[in-house]
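retry 2 of 3: previous attempt timed out while embedding zinc ion. Reduced batch size to 1 and resubmitted. Inputs unchanged:
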Amino acid sequence: MRRTLSAAAMILMVSFLALPAVPHGQGHGDAMYASIDGKHLKGYVDELTAMSRRYRDNGHPQFWGRIIGTDADAENARWLLGKFKAIGLSDVHEQPFDLPPQWMPQSWNVSMTASGAKTLALSSAQPTYRGVATPADGLDLEAADVGFATDADLAGRDLRGKAVFFYSMDYQSRHSTISHGAVKRIGDKGAAAIFITLLIPGNMHFQFYPVASEVPTFALGYEDGMSAREAIGQARAAGTTARVRLKLDVAMTPNLKTATIWGTLPGATDETVVIVAHRDGWFEAANDNGTGVATMAGLAEYFAKIPQAQRRRTIVFLGTTGHHDGTAESGTWLSQHKEVFAKTALLINCEHTAANQLIASNNAVVRKANVESPLSWYVGGSPTLEQIAARAYQTFDVKLLDGRAAAAAGEIGRIQNLAPSLQLIDTGLYWHSDKETSDIVPENGLAAVTRAYAKIIADTGGVAIKDLMKN
Ligand SMILES: [Zn+2]
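retry 2 succeeded.
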């Protein structure tokens, strides 16, 4: 008897601490979410990636995407305005922002020569965001390989005036924090240029966020990084040095504009649910943030079909400017207008909502699995909100990483504490690279996350705001 009781108590404990126990597959009444269709939503991702390619093909072959302040930004803003109007949202409008001068690299070129050997074009080189330009006629520097750029690698090395190459297994970093501050350690030793090779198979272009480097700094694809390493090694073996020629022309471009796109679906009360998806992204930006925008559009379509009286809360949809420019106009404005969230029961961030799992496989290739990548999840609210979210994720078999994220990284980072909030987010091997195309976006994953968000909105409808808030 005693044994049975403690077993029952344990089951209760476990189901409370982990995920609420619900039957596998779709539960009662969840068939209603079937109208949220993955193939349809992926069509939106395709339309968005096409905008990036148009921008690239229209004279921007190196630094491209749906970049804040560009024609691609304006095109996707118009597209979203049209979508919101077609769905039947009210008060659809654009809230414009003047941008500070934007970092726009005009062109660049990097190559390496080891004496006697032919010139090696390092064509995957991509300057880190806000990276320092070279003098107009470029730089010609001696190359140095510092391995992983640990203190052991750097001890005793004279890097003054050199082009320094290092290698990193910090796969998910596109930040100044890469390899625990390697860029700074190298810069402190007087490097004149820095090259970061991410050890992810292939030869991708990676767009890094600013890395706080005072010299021209580029990311390199794995194949180019390995070729450079080999050339440096061969030159050393021959008693000579490999040299790097680099040129980077940057224009700080003034007078550009961007906008938040607003749309409202009035509910039975003036309490709100706020749905955010950032519009910008680098390269094709299929996942970051084509999927998020598609998820937001899918939610708008779904709830627009439900009679207003049956929707307790007004839903506000925000296509925000994004944050890749660092100043994040929408997020900054919202963080300064807390009144927007005065009656907000739920803030949902739609960001990188679905990608296939990518595995670094043998023979230096990345392989795509036929299952979705597990998502990092964050809930900033009461245990009730967390349980409603967990139940929805389980209902639609959304794959999750173990353990809640400490905070909502990404577009709602500045506003996550202004209302009960939540998000799912994927940051995979191809994040911020030219391989992040529609090909890695699974229709099933896109449908699953969008359905789960719809269910969370519906299931929180009967819960008072105070009972959704963090204590
Ligand atoms: Zn993003």
